[in-house]
Amino acid sequence: MGLSGFLGPNVYSEVPDGGWGWVVAVAFFLVEVFTYGTIKSFGIFLQNLIDEFGETNSRVSWIVSISVFVMAFNAPFASMMTNRFGFQLVVMTGGLLITSGTIATIFTSSINQIYITYGLVAGMGYCLTFLPTVTILSQYFNHRRSLATAVASTGESLSMFALAPAFAALRDHIGWRNTMAVIGALQSVIIICGALLRPIIIKPNETLKPEADTLTLKDLSKHNDCTEGTTSGVSVTNKAFSDQNTFCSLTNELTTGSVSTADSGVQSLNDTDSGKQQETSLPHKKAKVEIEREQLEESKGEIKTSEKEEKTSRAVEKQAMKEELNNAADKKLSENNSKLLDFSILKECSFIFYSLFGLFATLGFFAPQLYIIQLSESRGVEKDHATYMLSTIAVAEILGRFSIGWILTRRQFRKKKLLVLLACVITLTVVLVGFTLVTEFYGLAVCCALYGFFLGTVVCTHIPLLAEDDVVGIERMTSAAGVYVFIQSFAGLAGPPLGGMLVDMTHNYGSAFYSCAAGMALSALFLGLVKPAKRGFSCMRRRRSESNAAHKEESEEERSK
Which residue ranges have biased composition labelled Polar residues (predicted)? Predict the structure, then answer.
């Protein structure tokens, strides 16, 4: 098998719910480690950048905000590039940009230059890498989609829990610039991951059907056309059997005549006369036998010819059906790829509500990790103990991702995924309010554990759930994910600065958590409207089609009159 065959498309008769999808899941795990995991771990360099460049905390924090904004804002561009050039080339290009941007950061001499290298260049690489990977992973799974996505997405939390402390220790030994170079070299793994994202093609399994299968609808439609040919074949066969019987009877007759003539020892005159008649008729019978034999051979030849023609016609018909099915699948695939970005999804209220859910929920995705240490210190927690809050969030987030993946694969929850997500969002809202009420270490630790757990349930499912029929469906997920993440980008850009502004105004770090809780509450409201809106849209479309059909019938009746 050549390289093109190994990395070429995978053709299945139905969604495999596994297979090469597990390789894609491993690739997505590594992509999570070196995209979102690296972004969330960038805080270990903040103090070094502040000290070296003499900048404020606010200006340095804009590095992460710009990177996240570029990553999300250009999501439609990533979708268009994926539809045009495929998953592999786009993700490999993104991995190259990430590596280049991160390594280029070590040569910068100001924060403004880091805005370009890490914020714009690496941010664009994150955009071209993350979204296509999670999209193709959803295409390889059906019933186990939530479980596969949840397990693979733990790379982000693992990076925060394990790699962030390791990079911090490395920074203390070799400096922040050399540590950034090591991170950039490790991020080149994404290029290999992109090569493993083999596209998936779903085609009917017509070529694997045995010839003894039942007739297809197309075969049944052509059955009457073949009846005449089959009848003629039967008549030829009957004729052959008739000719063979005649030949056998003549042969027996000749044999009987010869025996009776030879065994007769005493002959009368009449016997002599009859013998003369037999001798006269014998050559005629032999000639007749030869004629019948020739006819029999001709009949056998006709049978073989008719059977051969029938087999040939069946083979041609089967090949034509196979080509027709393949052409139909290829045509459908090309039609889907011809649309670089499908904006028709914006006409569906269900998708609009789901996008508003993602917009406001994003306010609570990044700000708590930025301010939890300062909040803990302001509540009297020692600085060494305050750093454990981030580790608590990371570990709990891993558990949350595994748990929601297992729950959504249960049969009783497969049709209620949006309700499960809604329950998690409401609980997360309550936990964010709880941060503002607790005043001691253990209360904050419990809030961090609950926040990490339910944050994990939300962040690993909100994009894959776009593939559910209650939102947009798997066929339009590529374009929908691009538009959805694009809408999220504004909250990703505004979330951390909004929390910082509230802290500056109130001099209370709890105010940042109030803004997160308010955004999460609004997201729960819009998420609760998704399914009713989807049902209303389906009913409206059904009524419209029924009214169009009735109008068409009325117009036909008027024409007939």
Answer: 261-281
